[in-house]
Amino acid sequence: MSPARLSAHEQRVLDGIERVLRRDRRLDRRLRTMTVHPGPGVRGLVCCRPRGRTVAVLLAVSVTLMVTAIATSAPWAICSFAVLWPFTLFAAVRLLCRWSGG
């Protein structure tokens, strides 16, 4: 399979686009260094500063799900608790670290 060649017109248009993009210094620097800046996904979660109310609500919902899962052995309650509990612990530890000054 051979690579497709561009027509003369398409090549001129492409050269013009590349010329305009090369003038953008920030884009040029970013492409040269190729540093990846993480979005708000994981970084936002790790850098979060949970409030006391948020942790209290998470804890209340987690305990309710745990009691429901123990009492009924319902798969949805067990799975919901299993998903929510790590987030609750993470938020509680972050809150306690913030309160203790650590």
TrEMBL record:
Keywords attached to this entry: Membrane, Transmembrane, Transmembrane helix
Transmembrane segments: 55-74
Superkingdom as given in the UniProt entry: Bacteria
Family annotation (Pfam families): DUF3040 (PF11239)
Name used for this protein in its record: DUF3040 domain-containing protein
Species classification: Bacteria, Bacillati, Actinomycetota, Actinomycetes, Kitasatosporales
InterPro entries associated with the record: DUF3040
